[in-house]
């Protein structure tokens, strides 16, 4: 249970009050058990950064890493062998490496042949795919993910479809804000509903709150963790 990213100036006067910016990651990591690394989506991050982030978090902490938009948005999953290798070579999280999430552009439609080739190119490990086009609501898509043990990302947002499907031996959820994208907080009732879904799935589940713009993500993550009987504070 955690948040999507940690570098949010909007949190400076709330969650990060009196916390120097250099300690934002370590501070957040004492309140959640996992974080998505988003910067890897925008540009290649050096291995030294991953080692630094790993060193600043508790021993049992887990990072999910967002795959580069060069692969998902520019190349649109085609001919990705070289950039995929370059990206994977930078990862240096050791035992704190969690799933790699591949967020697709809203304009990318489901193409079975393209997706099959992309999934075959992925290395061993946990991978999750977040499509944002309605055409992915298809049995052929779910079957491809199941064949490769890749998780479909269950995304909650007002601007792209929420397709609820579990396709791997783990589940992956991104909660972007139900009413206002990246903004709205989840109510007690909504958190209760998500907690029940996770119980019903009965498998390892990674949940990331992306409703970060007004600081709701941290409280929502802790609220959902409490509902699932998870500790909400870790110690370095």
Strand content: 15-25%
Tell me the distance between the termini. 17 Å
Secondary structure tally, helices: 9
Helix content percent band:
25-40%
The biggest sheet amounts to: 8 strands, parallel, barrel
By CATH, the superfamily comes out as: Protein of unknown function UPF0759
Low-confidence stretches: none
Cα-atom radius of gyration: 17 Å
- The overall pLDDT average reads 96
- Helix/sheet category: alpha/beta
**CATH topology, which one?**
TIM Barrel
CATH class: Alpha Beta
Overall shape: it is globular
Number of separate strands = 8
Task: Strand order, main sheet: write it out.
Answer: 1-2-3-4-5-6-7-8
Task: Using brief descriptors, characterize the structure shown.
single chain; alpha/beta; TIM Barrel; 8 strands; 34% helix; DUF72 domain-containing protein; UPF0759_sf; DUF72
Please give a quick description of this structure.
With 236 residues, this protein is an alpha/beta fold. It has helices at 24-28, 39-42, 47-55, 69-74, 81-90, 112-121, 139-148, 188-201, 216-227; strands at 2-4, 34-37, 62-66, 97-103, 127-130, 151-156, 170-175, 204-209.
Structure description:
The chain is α/β, with parallel strands linked by helices and 236 residues long. The chain has a single domain, classed as TIM Barrel (Alpha-Beta Barrel). The protein is 34% helix and 17% strand. It contains nine helices and eight strands. It has helices at residues 24-28, 39-42, 47-55, 69-74, 81-90, 112-121, 139-148, 188-201, 216-227, and strands spanning 2-4, 34-37, 62-66, 97-103, 127-130, 151-156, 170-175, 204-209. The protein has an eight-stranded parallel β-barrel. The protein is globular and about 50 Å long. The protein starts with a strand and ends in a 9-residue tail after the last helix.
């Amino acid at each position: 249970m955690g948040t999507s990213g940690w570098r949010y100036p909007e949190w400076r006067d709330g969650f990060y009050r009196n916390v120097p910016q250099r300690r934002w990651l370590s501070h957040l990591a004492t309140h959640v058990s996992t974080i998505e690394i988003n910067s890897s989506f925008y540009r290649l991050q050096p291995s030294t950064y991953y080692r630094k982030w790993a060193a600043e978090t508790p021993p049992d902490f887990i990072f999910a890493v967002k795959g580069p938009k060069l692969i998902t948005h520019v190349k649109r999953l085609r001919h990705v062998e070289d950039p995929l290798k370059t990206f994977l070579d930078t990862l240096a999280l050791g035992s704190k490496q969690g799933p790699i999430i591949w967020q697709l552009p809203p304009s990318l439609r489901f193409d079975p042949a393209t997706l099959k080739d992309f999934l075959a190119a992925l290395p061993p490990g946990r991978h999750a795919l977040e499509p944002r086009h309605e055409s992915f609501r298809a049995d052929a898509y779910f079957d491809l993910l199941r064949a490769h043990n890749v998780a479909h990302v269950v995304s909650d947002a007002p601007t792209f479809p929420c397709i609820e499907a579990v396709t791997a031996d783990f589940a992956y959820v991104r909660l972007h804000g139900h009413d206002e994208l990246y903004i709205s907080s989840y109510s007690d009732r909504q958190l209760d509903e998500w907690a029940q879904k996770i119980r019903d799935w009965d498998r390892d589940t990674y949940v990331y709150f992306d409703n970060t713009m007004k600081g709701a993500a941290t409280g929502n993550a802790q609220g959902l963790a409490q509902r699932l009987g998870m500790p909400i504070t870790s110690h370095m």
